[in-house]
User: Fold this.
Amino acid sequence: MANTEFPAIETSRLVLRPLALSDAPAIYAYQSNAEHYRYMSPDPPVSADVVAEPIRTWLALPAEERRPCWVIVLREIDCVVGTISFNQLDRTNSSGQLGFEVAREQWGKGIGTEAVRAVLSYGFGAMGLNRIAAYCWDGNVTSRRVMEKAGMIYEGTLRQVRYARGAYHDMRLYSQLASEWRTGQPLGHGQ
Assistant:
């Protein structure tokens, strides 16, 4: 699980490749859409430079401290249409937490589900993780469907755990276990 350099991951429609500073303008282009940010805590970025700053910080970390972070490239048009990453890794307990986003104009095309499945496979396979979780705002039906279609199980709702835009928000927690990924059968209680 101590993989410090992570590979590009290819699916039938996507290439997930490690994030690069040169990706900031493409990420800014879709993140500047207010609809994209409806279920996110911060406000949309005001420039590509604002997007570039956390990328610079991430790239400045020693390789062994970087958590895997990929841009989602739609192979057909060779364009960055999202990101997916392990926002948290707990190496002691072999678990991780995913975060993902897809450009608004690509919603409803299965891109998020395809990317999440690919990263679940990488996490359980190459990284040797036992549990991978993700969560979304309670009202974010699109993200809920992505996680469910990718095989993740709804665990419960974290009540008013996120404060954003002047209010507290509930978050829905999903996860998948390595044993479920291997067999394709959920062990949890579902919804």
The chain has a mean pLDDT of 90.
